[in-house]
Design goal:
The protein contains one helix and 19 strands. The protein is mainly β and 248 residues long. One of its GO terms (cellular component) is plasma membrane.
Length: 248
Amino acid sequence: FTASCQSDSCYHGECVETINSHRCKCSEGFYGEQCEHVVECKMEEVTVPANASISCSHPNGNFSFDSTCQYSCEEGYRLSSSGPVRCTASESWSEQPPTCELVLCSELYEPGNGSMACSHPLGSFSYLSTCTFTCEEGYERLAYSSATLQCGASGQWNDSQPQCIAVSCPTLQQPQDGAISCGEDFTFGSSCNFSCSEGYLLKGAITVTCTSAAEWSEEIPHCEGKDNHFCIFKIDLILTIVYIEKSF
């Protein structure tokens, strides 16, 4: 018995000895007496979708067994499937070419006591969409929030959605010898009523209201003792009487 298998007997496979001869057992994806042929896949089936690019590698020949094609999308788009397509031993691609889908961000809404104006150059609440927020009179955005948001390539807005909150007026204190009655806070539209203890008179407005400018509508009143007014009146009266007597 003489071995007939040589180093070049089979190009892509295993040489198997037989009586006075040999045969080739081809590796996956190869065929022929010496496994000299490689399985090929249809090149035209590897299409390039819109907003995409493709990069292929061919270890065994163009668009043949074990060729792989990896897809990537332009900024603002994402692949419908992430893996590459591969030419299989059955002369078909491992899967259909993916598509590039427009990146979407979460839908935004008008804030309470505010409004929203949006621009959608590619699609509703998608990549490059921008939304600008404004607040009604007497309301303002939180200091750390942005007035304009943009949808990024990652599918996230560049900031959290702003909220409109009522402006606040300076905190008021209970006047000396008096009392103050207010709503729950000192925000836009809230009012405070003032009163004085017995024996005191209120100097100024009874009610002040927080305006859209974050200021109180009136000067803050204070309480004065009634005796002070009586004494002033009495002194003025005495001086008047003395003046009249001296005139005669």
